Amino acid sequence: MTAPGRRSSTFSRLLRHGFTDPSAAERLLEGPELAPIRVDPVLLDALGATADPDLALLGLVRLVEAQAGDSARRELLDTLIAAKPLRDRLLGVLGASEALGDHLARHPQDWQVLVTYEAQDLHPGVAEFEAGLADADDPVALRVAYRRCLLSIAARDVCGTTDLAQTAAELADLATATLRAALAIARAAAPEDAALCRLAVIAMGKTGGHELNYVSDVDVIFVGEAAEGTDGADESKAVQAATRLASHMMRLCSETTVEGSIWPVDANLRPEGRNGPLVRTLSSHLAYYQRWAKTWEFQALLKARPVAGDLELGEDYVATLAPLVWHAAERDNFVADVQKMRRRVVENIPAAEIERELKLGPGGLRDVEFAVQLLQLVHGRVDTSLRSGTTLDALKALATGGYVGRADAVQLDDAYRFLRSMEHRIQLFRLRRTHLVPEDDADLRRIGRSLGLRVDPVKELNREWKRHASVVRRLHEKLFYRPLLDAVAQLAPGETRLSPGAARERLVALGYADPAAALRHLEALASGVSRKAAIQRTLLPVLLGWFADSADPDAGLLNFRKVSDALGKTPWYLRLLRDEGAAAENLARVLSAGRLAPDLLLRAPEAVALLGDGEGGGLEPRDRAHLEQEILAAVRRADGGEQAVTAARGVRRRELFRTAATDIVASYGTEETPAVADQGALVDLVGGAVSDLTAATLAGTLRAVVRDGWGDTLPTRFAVIGMGRFGGHELGYGSDADVLFVHEPREGVDEQVASKAANAVVSEMRRLLQIPSADPPLLIDADLRPEGKSGPLVRTLKSYEAYYRRWSLVWESQALLRAEVVAGDADLGSRFIELIDPLRYPAEGLGEEAVREIRRLKARMESERMPRGADPTLHSKLGRGGLSDVEWTVQLIQLRHGWAEPGLRTTRTREALAAACAAELLSTEDAAILDEAWVLATRVRNAVMLVRGRAGDTFPSDGRELAAVGRYLGYGPGHVGDMLDDYRRTTRRARAVVDELFYGA
Predict the structure, then answer these.
(1) Residue among 23, 25, 81 nearest 53 (CA)
(2) With contact defined as beta carbons under 8 Å apart, do 427 and 214 qualify?
């Protein structure tokens, strides 16, 4: 008897053997069931070796209790103690699987399948499993026989007799045997249907790949034909018969009975998914895949394997579709489609589960499988050794062929095996389909111990899991790109390089139009033994992926080479890209999004520093006050006007690049930050930034010209008034600066002298801002002045007052709606604004004659100014529902109601539209329609300038440029048609509103 307060020696031994509830275990050991073997040390040692000794002991007691009589109990216990293979297998299963423990308690004689230890028992195949299922002739018997076979697979697995790949193959073979048994039962139940048709069952997914889990949907596709000897006219009847057989076979496996279910049979990978017919003829399958199949469907066919029914028909199916599968990589946007599918899978994982998702989450099993399948599809066309449906076999073949680096392949193989083993142990416990890592420590302890982690199972398991997931996350995308560098680099002895042909194939699959040039760029960047080349070899695998995600990967890589050549000797450049996470991706997006941003960058490559997130970086556009301060300081330091304006234009170029980069990165999104959803906010950001930059540049230029010609003081006060998009804070990248110039002679200065000085200032400003240089010119357009091109460039305030009082036309009042002071004498500018306010916001609004005149002007502009041959449904400025339509409609509302509604007294289109809506001058719906169309048309103009490097109002005709505009607007590869349709739809709705509000239709 144990003294009070002291633990028994058995209790201590149980603790040492890994029991977590020694008290309960002690009671079980002292029960009558285990009395004959209670003191045998072999028992405790064997229990302690299991994943969960408590669970194993409880399962053993239940199994002994369930035996039919004393002799059966004695046989079980004697064999358990005498036969180590049985002891390890039986207790190993009981300690790892509660569900198989339940099965043994219900079917207590099934432990005997674990006794034999012959060669065929160690490595059974389909034939052995078919023999094990041979007597099953109804759903319940099939489930019992299936579990009995599963018991032997699990026993070999948990004891380490088979490794992961062998276990997964055995599970697939058992699934094959089960499908055959279920089909045999279905055929026996409907012999007439069986006689009418040939039915082939094609395994897909992990079953087809010979790498099945313990609990998984078994993916299949069915092929049916009329039975030989029947009339071909009976094909439809044959397909109907085959469909009934296939449906019955699926139910036999999937339905729940007193013995549960086996697994769901899923036929949703078939053509048209669940909306398509369950069974098709071979010719129908072929027609579908030739005409309608998406990229992911060919990816799925990589694992297609005939397993049941008419195997000859199944082989014909695989052979017929194989050529289509191995040419899938030639499809447009192939790589982008595969990667988009992967991203969609991740996006659909609930946020609360993503950190525990072993299969679908970042760094999970699917990342390895997608990476391997992508490489198989690209290179399997010419290298048949890669055509394996089994992930690990395919990975090994890719490494052997040099398509994947050997070290990377070894790391991925280890990670995949570990993650799959975790998945097996998680599912084995209750035989439930799950890929979530449990949160309970008891579950984690059992899984860790089952994988050989015995010191601190929970901590070790989490550490190993995170380590392997991190390896996968780091390698799975680089896997595709890194061998491209090896193809042009010096390799260690014994390493296999990607052949030039294979490298070109891979680049073409990525979307590179000139793979030979791309390989030359890679060689120039990454070859050699310098530190610079070593850093480039680290960066390029990731950069190549980002370039491939754009519409023009060739341009991205070429521009990167140019920037690297220009900055290669600077110590901070590669360090910035390597160490600041955002900089490299931002640079890749900017360099491959079109011509404008790279052109601006290549004129002064040190602006790369803006793309980082450290000191000196930051993509947030700077406000006007800061810009003016910097430009005026540069002007003060300069010697002479030309040098001063050169400095101002340099700041403008740098800030144009900053704004363009901000716009591109926000429009494309990054791996960490999705694309900005509010397109209007991006339009406002670009319009405000470019307008502020233009105003600051003009202010600096004005200061430089005055200082150079007159010293500190010009003989006349001088102000620059922004007009059009400039005054409205809506300038695009390629917009001219629409302005008016106003001056007022200082006291005592002759008006002719003042006028001469003012005109000299304007002429010199325009000259300096257009001097050919590395910086983009800033064109000043003063055509909106009184009398247009025929009138003087500069007028005094009194001259403007006299003109507007006597001669002003209604179109000039409309143009003045956008007038705002942008540079020069603030007081003079403010008096000019006071002068024009009565003109642009006329008391009591516009008369009917003036309204008719504006409508006539608009109609004439539509008919006369639209370029010949342009599609009016796609012209962003003058086309149907474009910028002109929306702006004239808003401006007419301002002219009619601005005198009474203060909110309408703004130079900005969107602000005025919102104010009109708030004043109930148009409905909320109409305001939203006009705003959406205006924002979209503005984005199109910005996109065209970014992509082509020159301004344009219509979508590009070149396919690559059009695709780049689409990417900027948020349309993925292959969706240019959707973009044009959406543009037409949006502007058509806007034109209907314009017809009503502007034309009074």
Answers:
(1) 25
(2) yes
CA separation for the pair 511, 551 (Å, rounded)? 8
Alpha-carbon dihedral 152, 157, 160, 161, rounded to 10 degrees: 40
CA distance 208 to 101: 29
The string over 790-813, giving b where at least 16 C-beta atoms fall within 10 Å of a residue's C-beta and e elsewhere, is eebbbbbbebbeebbeeeeebebb
Q: What are phi and psi of 202, to 5 degrees?
A: -100, 120
- Helix 391-400 / helix 365-379 crossing angle, nearest 10 deg: 50
Residue 495: DSSP 8-state: P
HSE, CB side, 13 Å, CA atoms: give it for residue 17: 26
CB atoms within 10 A of CB 638: 19
Q: What is the pTM of this model?
A: 0.75
Distance between the two ends of the chain, CA-based, in angstroms?
104
Using an 8 Å Cβ cutoff, are 439 and 364 in contact? no
| Nearest residue to 110 (alpha-carbon basis) of 156, 57, 139, 67 | 67
SS3 159: coil
Closest CA relative to residue 404, chosen from 320, 479, 317, 313: 479
- Minimal CA–CA distance to 743: which of 735, 755, 727, 732? 755
pLDDT digits (tens, 9 = 90+) for 928-946: 999 999 999 999 999 999 9
Task: Decide if pLDDT at 454 tops 50.
Answer: yes
What is the β-pairing status of strands 218-226 and 197-203? antiparallel
The amino acid at 24: A
> Distance between CA 412 and CA 408 in Å, rounded?
6
What is the C-alpha to C-alpha distance for residues 900 and 913, in angstroms, rounded to an integer?
A: 15
- Report d(CA 479, CA 477) in Å as an integer: 5
- Residue 653 predicted with pLDDT over 70: yes
pLDDT tens-digit readout, 817-841: 999 999 999 999 999 999 999 999 9
For the cut 70, the answer to whether the pLDDT of residue 488 exceeds it is: no
Distances (CA, A) of 552 to 590, 666, 962, 976: 11, 18, 11, 14
DSSP secondary structure code for residue 956 in this structure: -
3-state secondary structure of 614: coil
Taking each helix axis from N to C end, the angle separating 406-430 and 84-96, rounded to the nearest 10 degrees, works out to 80
CA distance readout (Å), 228 to 40, 194, 278, 355, 455: 65, 12, 21, 54, 64
- Residue 13 is classified by DSSP as H
What is the pLDDT, as a whole number, of residue 121?
A: 61
- Backbone dihedral region of 293: left (phi > 0), alpha (psi from -120 to 50 degrees) or beta? beta
The residues, ordered by sequence, that sit 6+ positions from 5 with a Cβ below 8 Å of its Cβ are: none
Q: Tokens at residue 122, please?
A: 């160690």
Residue 478: band (very low, low, confident or very high) from pLDDT cuts 50, 70, 90 = confident
Q: What percent of the chain has pLDDT over 90?
A: 75
Find where tokens 């190549």 sit. 544
Residue 247 near residue 263 (C-beta atoms within 8 A) = no
Q: Where are the alpha helices (DSSP H) in 865-923?
A: 883-897, 909-918
3-state secondary structure of 306: strand
Backbone angles phi, psi at 172, to 5 degrees: -70, -40
Measured torsion, CA atoms of residues 926, 931, 933, 934, in degrees rounded to the nearest 10: 140
Per-residue pLDDT at 26 exceeds 50? yes
User: Rounded CA gap, 95 and 89, in Å?
Assistant: 10
The tokens describing 31, both together, are 């029960």
Give the Cα separation of 316 and 310 in Å (integer): 10
535-549, 793-807, 810-824: lowest mean pLDDT where? 535-549
In 755-900 the beta strands, taken as DSSP E runs, fall at 780-781, 794-796, 820-824
- Among 891, 899, 864, 874, residue whose Cα is nearest residue 953: 874
**CA 707 – CA 699 distance, rounded (Å):** 12
pLDDT at 4 over 60: no
- 25, 13 contact by CB (below 8 A): no
Report pLDDT for 614: 55
